[in-house]
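Appendix B. Extra example for self-study. Work through it before the problem class; the solution is given directly after the inputs so you can check yourself.
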Amino acid sequence: MTLQALKHLHRFDGGLAYFLATGKLKISTLGIHYQIPWLHLFPLAAWIISMFVMSGIVAGFVSVNVMALVWLERKVSGLIQNRMGPMMINILQPKMLASSKNPVLKWISVWFGGWLQTMADGVKLLLKEDIIPVNADKWVFITAPICVFTASLMGYALIPFAPQFPIIENLNIGFLFIFAFGSYTVIGILMAGWSSNNKYSLLGGMRSAAQLITYEIPMLLALLGVVMMTGTLKMEKIVNFQRSLGTHHGHWLILYQPLGFLIFLIAGIAETNRTPFDMPEAESELVSGFNTEYSGFRFSLFFLSEFSNMFLSCALGATLFLGGWSGPGSSYGIIAFLWLMIKAYGLVLVFMWIRWTLPRVRIDQMMEFGWKVLTPLALLNILWTGGEILLVKIQGYQHQYLYIWFPISLLVLAMLFMPKPKKKREHKLKFAPFL
Amino acid sequence: MKGSHLIIFIPEIAVLSLALLLLIFDWVTPKGKKVWIGYFSAVMILVFMGGFLCLAKNRFFPYAASFHGFVFDAFALYFKELFLLVVFLATLFSVNFFKQDDEGQGEYYALLLFVTLGCFLLVSSADLLMLFLSFEMMSIPLYVMCAYRKKDSKSSESGLKYFLIGAITSALLLYGISLVYAATGTTNLHAFIEGLVSANKLAYNPILLLGLILMLCAFCFKIAAVPFHMWAPDVYEGAPAPVVAFLAVSPKIAVIGLMTRLFLAGMQPLQPFWVFLFAVLAAFTMTVGNLTALFQQNLKRLLAYSGIAQIGYILVGFASIQPFFKNMPTLQLGYQAILFYLAAYLFSDLAAFGIVTYLSAHGIEDVKSLKGLAEKNPMIAFLFLISLLSLAGVPPLVGFVGKFYLFLAAVSSRLYWLALLGVVNSVISLFYYLRVARTMYFEKEEGVSIPYPSFSMQVALLVAVLGILIIGIYPFMITHFSLQVLTPLSNVPISHVMK
Amino acid sequence: MRFYAAADEDHKAQKGNIYENRIRLLMSNSVLFYSLAVLIISCAFAVVFLRNIFHAGLFLLGAFLGVAGIYIALFNYFLAAVQALVYSGAIAVLILFGIMLTQRHYRKEDPSHNAFKWIAFVLSFGIAGFLVDSFRSLKPGSIFPVKHLLYQMGMALMQTYAIPFEVISALLLVALLGAFSLAREKEDL
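Solution. Structure tokens for the complete assembly:
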């Protein structure tokens, strides 16, 4: 196989979805024309089968990914807070690895120690007794986790993991779809909170709904800046826009939308119910919030969707602000995929870093921050974007000149978020997030 | 749309900016010193009234222009002047109704202006989308204002009732609009006329008729026509008195104006269907309103039922409208009578409600407690008498002229039974109006005299009562104007007017 | 730098979109439409007849979702997303929220009864029958997608319907103001 052919390996005509929907596989450069026999005679069947296959692919990806995420979460928390379990549990003798003088083994022990913890967790959850409280609203109780999980899965259909690899292509509303069906998470959480017949669950559910609605507004407003710049809602187009901006590997939109990215990040943390905004499941106040009464597999569905939502937020952020799959060598499908994963995982690490560093805020502080700080800032960002576009359209500036906005943006941001000078600190804090 | 086209939106822009300005003033004025906001608002409204009149006289200003479902013409301007008058009087009623240190005064006046903005847009709308939006704009602040006394459970009840009824009304209206859209494929009234005139088939489309009936139901709810009138007395009784004065006049005038535009102009080819409908509605509304008013003890409820009856008289005008000839101006007695009677209703009803506002501030809510008012405060008793007699339709006053025109129109379109019923109803209504007068003048009761009203109230009452007297004696200043307003729906694209 | 350029290209690939071909196929068989219709109508019936108000709210959500499905079947993805975002994401959530805040007797059946039940029943079925009968006279519209849908909608909002669009903003301001002055905890007038 020549390099040229390898380059086109990812290019099915019409993408993965085309293959799944029609059973036709065409790779023009390689001269491959394959069709699953008889399938074209039963278009409805083909369609339904393709739906199932795609759902399976997404669900599989999410499950595997979440395992890695949970492990990483515990790993990061372990590193930050010196927890032992996730650092050590391993098939190999941890002590042997940790005490060895071989730097490679040492590295492995630090970074891969404890990888079995997720497995152990999963097995524990699946083996737990499945309890439905006697006074619970049974059917609502059962449906709630399914609803939450489905909502978190649907967003993955839109993420372009690689060029011409969106699961649903040509959807002209693009990422609006993710938000539209992502809002069903709220419903699921409300259902869980209501049906558990438990006041802590009820409070958790209501807090969650309030929080999600509050932070959805600044998030969508922040993304409006991206839409204004690119003139499209399609994820694929937005990635291509970022690629076409620069000479080489593209100019990420974060350069032009730093404020928008920051708002997106904060709102994303709040939307995924993570500390410092984890009001709905604040242990010290609400036992465990809306999922107090859940156990076993149903609980694991909530758990799973929480992490899959987090990854979805990060993948969305990576696609919209960090150039998506684009990067050196991204013309190879697999490398493009790796680029997206690297960027998304980078954001995931930021999420985790924030979670394990910051304390939880109060509910009224959180609502106030959403309405009084983030929403006006998001509106400001729209104004700002309008200024940028005006600069290009009316002044006829080349895009390089937009770089001038970047330092200005940073300056403004710094001014906005500058803490008021109080007392002098006694000792200097070292910037050491991971150890 | 060019910038110069904005000139036809000047009334709306002016009112909106005044409302926003009041909000800012409310924000910057310290507590306890907010009374001047009301006076400022009243003065600005007066300026607007004069300004719009001058604007209409300006030869550079289009006589009629439309922009995508927004129509500016003499018809709309006539109504806009009426709304400004209503909001002027209502603002003056409210100024001393609130205490010095009350919160939210600026908001209150701003809400009044927002309702007025909704009314402005409603009479200017020639598009169903615009119609619905302005309908909501007109209603939403009123729900809030009805419940403005939060610690008074009756006020809250009134606000909630009005909100529920309003929500149902909006639902009916939307359902009607969707059916009309399904039948005609357009939301634009101009397109309706062309479609209805060219394809006569469309006129007998059952979906269109059902949609129109649903929309008519929604309008009847808003103007409290029988059988959709139940809410009015309850809402009026609980809501703060100046709000009631405003609520009883402005939205009703706006919806009547809209109905005039919609049915007379937009639905002209369907005329045979709705004329009979309006005749029946008018008969029921007049009779039920007047008969029920006979038994009322609470002043606000009495005026509520009297207002229902007044709407019945106006509907007589709708019933007696003759078909336009190809949308050209012809002599339209019914149409002019409606326009005139709206002005008559405005002055009489506002004068009566102004006095009720004043009385309720001194704890007088019932007919019984009016005993000896003629001795306690002869001026107020006299003004109240004049306004009630005008509502009843006694000769030298404006109400008489209005009713005369309406019944004349009914006779001229051969609805003799309706005209006769209207006259009988006027006689019935005299019973309860004179009952109030008898209580004031002939039933004695010892008591302290009631202080004279404040300056703002004096001005407002003077304006209203002078209106009743002057227009009653010299009605041609309005009829002259309503002749000019004859084309109810002018379709002149703004780009044709402005060069 | 090409701002706005992408908007024009949004629908170039419309023709070859296999999903829309599939959906078109389903619509022509009416399978999709009738299944959605059954979903919506059964959900609506559940809303009306269920005595548990929270369940009724959930079924209302189902009906909203079905309407979003109809929009998808008509290729108006934008309206579908807005339907899901506004009706399910905001309105239904607010309804459920309101139920959770106000319902004191937890999960008790709603004891209220409607005296006009049968009149309402006859009247609504009468209107439904009338509508079904008269809608047969209407011409069916095209189920094929509009070109440059989003672009056209945006242009219509900013040009033809500019005035209603502005009125909506004033309306929202009024609603906000009203909600604020009702919910405020200060002394009343």
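Self-check: Chain B is about 75% helix and 0% strand. If your reasoning did not lead you there, revisit section 3.
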